[in-house]
Amino acid sequence: MFEMGGGVEVKGGKKTKKEKKKERLEGVKKEMDIDDHEIPIEDLEQRYNTNVTTGMTSTFARQVLERDGPNELKPPKGTPEYVKFARQLAGGLQCLMWVAAAICFIAFGIELARGNFTCFDNLYLAITLIAVVVVTGCFGYYQEFKSTNIIASFKNLVPQQALVIRDGRKDTISAKELVVGDLVEVKGGDRIPADIRIITAQSCKVDNSSLTGESEPQTRSPECTHENPMETKNIAFFSTTVLEGVATGVIINTGDRTIIGRIATLASGVGNEKTPIAIEIEHFVDIIAGLAIFFGFTFFVVALFIGYSFLEAMIYFMAIVVAYVPEGLLATVTVCLSLTAKRLARKNCVVKNLEAVETLGSTSVICSDKTGTLTQNRMTVAHLWFDNHVHSADTTEDQSGQSFDQSSETWRSLARVAGLCNRAIFRPDQEGIPIPRRTVVGDASETALLKFTELTIGNIEQYRNRFKKVAELPFNSTNKFALSIHELEDPLDLRYLLVMKGAPERILERCSTILIKGQELPLDEQWTEAFQTAYMDLGGLGERVLGFCNIYLNEKEFPRGFSFDPDELNFTTSNLCFCGLVSMIDPPRATVPDAVMKCRTAGIRVVMVTGDHPITAKAIAANVGIISEGSETVEDIAIRKRIPVERVNPREARACVINGGQLKDMSSDELDDALRNHPEMVFARTSPQQKLIIVESCQRLGSIVAVTGDGVNDSPALKKADIGIAMGIAGSDAAKNAADMILLDDNFASIVTGVEQGRLIFDNLKKSIAYTLTKNIPELTPYLIYITCSIPLPLGCITILFIELATDIYPSVSLAYEKAESDIMNLKPRNPRRDRLVNESLAVYSYFQIGAIQSFAGFTDYFTAMAQEGWFPLLCIGLRGNWEDTHLQDMQDSYGQEWSFSQRLYQQYTCYTVFFVSIEICQISDVLIRKTRRLSVFTQGFFRNKVLMSAIVFQILLGNLLCYCPGMPNIFNFMPIRGQWWAVPIPYGILIFVYDEIRKLGVRRAPGSWWDQELYY
Amino acid sequence: MATLKQKRTCGQRCEDFGHFVWNSEEGKFMGRTPEKWVYISLYYVAFYVVMTGLFSLAIWVLMYTLCPYAPDYQDRLSSPGVMVWPDIYGEEMVEINYNTSCQKSWMKMSNNLHDFLIPYNETNQAHCNNHNCTKGKYFIQKTYSAPNKTKWVCPFTQSMLGPCSGLEDPTFGYNCSMPCIIIKMNRIISYLPTNDTKTPPYVNCTITEGHENIAHIEYFPEGGKYDLSYFPYYGRKAQPTYVNPLVAVRFHLIGKKSAKLQCRVVSEKIEYQNIHDPYEGKVDFYLKAMK
After folding, report:
1. Residues 675-734 of A with CB under 8 A from B
2. B114: number of Cβ within 10 Å
3. What are phi and psi of A320, to 5 degrees?
4. Measured between CA atoms, how close is B290 to chain A, in angstroms?
5. Which of A477, A499, B49, B167 is the most buried (most CB within 10 A)?
6. pLDDT tens, B37-74?
7. List A182, A195, A207, A369, catalytic entry
8. Residues of A in contact with B85 (CB under 8 A)
9. Do the beta carbons of residue A742 and residue A725 sit within 8 Å?
10. ipTM of the predicted structure?
């Protein structure tokens, strides 16, 4: 049902795609139609042929195992390695080069057929083109392979065991062998081995955060509490962890049929989107191909007109089309992207697909998961209310924040209650680890309190030892409180201390006094109201609030040795003294608010999409700045204006919180509207499918969407997003598989770095491409003039390949090291429709202005070299027929000297070399002007880019090596040329530099003017 | 983004293209208003006029600096090329194949030589090169003493080739088995083929294949020498009527009447071992006579 045939490469028509999508969504709906949690246990026993006390018979279990297969997630059908490699060879530019190579082969074939056995240029060119594609393909493949390895190293390979009851006997078997109907037993710390319906449970709590995003532990009990299997309490899901308690249950789904399995298959069914850079490159290839065919055709007609035969004209046509292919560009783009990928890896962002590097830069919407991404995924004490004041605790990960005033007597009592009425303990041997990171045995809120008291009071273990515990009643859902009774620290004081914590309203019921500044005051109306306000305030912050109280038991009534019975409650549990409230939350990571702020200034919208409750989601959103200060939701406005929600104009509300239930009833148009109208959005209680719908909606609105997440529930959205970002530490394997990028430090702030690098590489790629394209014209014009004016060929094919693939590669790559021209993080994300990588003005300016100047430089040098050796410019025109006649050994030059064919050929090589040198000199000037598009090069810092400087030196040295290395003339057709021919193109180089400075000056001085429109690229 | 990625039908693409060609709402033709097109065209016209002007200036300066009498450099002309006439090529090399019994065949050869020798006929030479040169030494001229500010040129007439001159035997021996060939050395300005004046360069033909088919080889002028008085060459402007000295070689074919030959101009300064230029200082050819 979910099979999409790999999905990625399928290029079905529009219709089939739609159909498949429909199918998929229907499949998702179906998955919810489970009634195993609703039917009576007897029916369940019958359905799965099992027994809730003795389990299945092992023989039947074996049969079921054979029928259903092992209980494990089928690894996502990994793309075979050869497909991955083939994909590296099939990008836009690669296709262009394949076509060019094919044309070369055809041209070579035609030449051979015509009996020309000496001209191997076309063959060499074809081979080089293929070699370039294959080599860069290998490079890209290697990069991908390396990052896949980094990701693979995270995989957890420990085989899981499960405690199963079969034939009435308990047995530990591998979780793989479990089948539907098996009776299993789980306890605190276990991973649930399959989807199970709970039969019995004792204070069982599970952590569903990887599935739903809720960080609060969920109670599991045998009662069916909701018709939705995701909401009901009697189903525990595969791969979630049991935090505490024990439970037994019957397996209702195994392997890929579990909820998690379905989500994982859902993710693999979502097609990969093309990256923005791939789209840009395709657009660019369109431009190149269009120009090439236009030029080729023009000269085809011209050649026919001049009087060449059809076949010759055809060969010229092919040669021109091929000459238009920028051979070096593929290598440049690949290297630039991998440089940035490397830079990002150093900042803990691992990129799986090179092209994804740029995607972050174009991102306009980030859909972020809350738990684990924005928050620490760790309950922490956030606020305290005592002495009629709300105090804020330090929630930062490294305890660098402000603490509150701890001098009050009330605080001491409150801390004592929090420290003593707490069953959580640290795992041993964790002295070296900072307190917030230590692992704890106990439930989330007790853990939070333990860490909090450890931080504020100090060594809590010793503290507890000083107050010997004599009795305790753990928290349960009927009482909604926990209590414990302790002896006092002072051995002379024989009273017992009863400490109690629990749901604040329940605690308040049991209190008659309240501790204010160390004084016990009667709990009157005024204090009750103060309590209510504080309780509401803290609850409104999305925090979980606990109340604390204590009492010194009367030593007469409860003398030493009194036997306290927590079940009977044979002691005072009313008229206690209220100490205060403590509220806890999964706090945001310290770096997140700043990062969200940076995203905002960068014009990126951050949308929270979480499975958690709306109130918590909204509170965290407000806390990290996703909902900015002063922004109100419709509900907030309604409350402020005291009018019904319906009468509020939704356009007034900047912020909007939508929960899964509301989302279900919305049409996609309504969702689009909501996303358009409210800049600050929070989606709560969303299912994995809904996350997908939200991403699709954003994409419909024209945004490039990044999705961050860690849970399995995020994986379909991660896949659907233009760029999926998974968390490296907390992230599940499913999420990592679906993502394009992985944050090794789980730090949302790294995304900002990614955005910055992505934008920079987009700008710099533009520069690199402009640089690379420019020389296409001086490479092409010699051939055009050769055809039309019949001069001896000024530039050979091998020489062109040397320019493209040797001397100019390093400088074009060095532009990737260029610093940003302006503060790119203060700009809006680029508009994918308007701000193209290669636009018309870039191509036209490079080709017809700078390229033209370079051509003039080349021809000046060519004619100089010819004239100084005896061939005047006017003689050169029309010379070609005799010049290329291999049988003519006494051809006269302008001075009457006679030249043999070989002597003329070496003269031609000299021309190749001077043309090469001219292009090199002009390209040095070109790389300098490409440093900036708007600013003056001097403002940018002429020598600041050290790599670029070394690239220029490299270029000159390589040029010299090619020219003056012995043996070059006969191998690569380079001749040792006279020194002054290096100098001939220099004035043109200076002209290029000055002309571009004037262009930039105009662009800066007159923004929006005609000059700006036509000449800014 | 989704809209951007949607596959458009061909009709839509054509429509888009049509919209691009003529956008009626904004009055834009190919993405620009006509007014904008005029501006951008003018800009490009101006740009290319200026560039062409600069280029022309550069070429003018180049031509201005060139010496009209001799090139600045002769990097490729360190040693002269040598060629044989009749220059009839086979597959790769010069192949002088003829049939003594077929007039058309040998006439092709003799006509080739007749055409080649036109500048060398007595009247031509008497008319333009009437300077009396001292044989046996370089004719070095520091001044432009000849008429029209030129330099004197030593005459070389057809008759100097003796039996191979085509005067006595217009067939150049191609109607029998004693064919003549002519070896010419390329001229290079200011080039002196020897260091001293004692031994002038001379042609030496060797048989590389088919030794038994050639009885003997004769050289005209005697010894196959290029007289030193024809060197150095001063260029087209200084010596407009210059003619290269020639050497004719006559082979006596016997047996199968076919051989592969190499004729080399022997002189200490003339290179002949450059594998990349087979015509430098020597020339290889096939000679074959058929009945």
Report:
1. 696, 699-700, 702-705, 722
2. 15
3. -70, -40
4. 24
5. A499
6. 899 999 999 999 999 999 999 999 999 999 999 999 99
7. A369
8. none
9. yes
10. 0.93
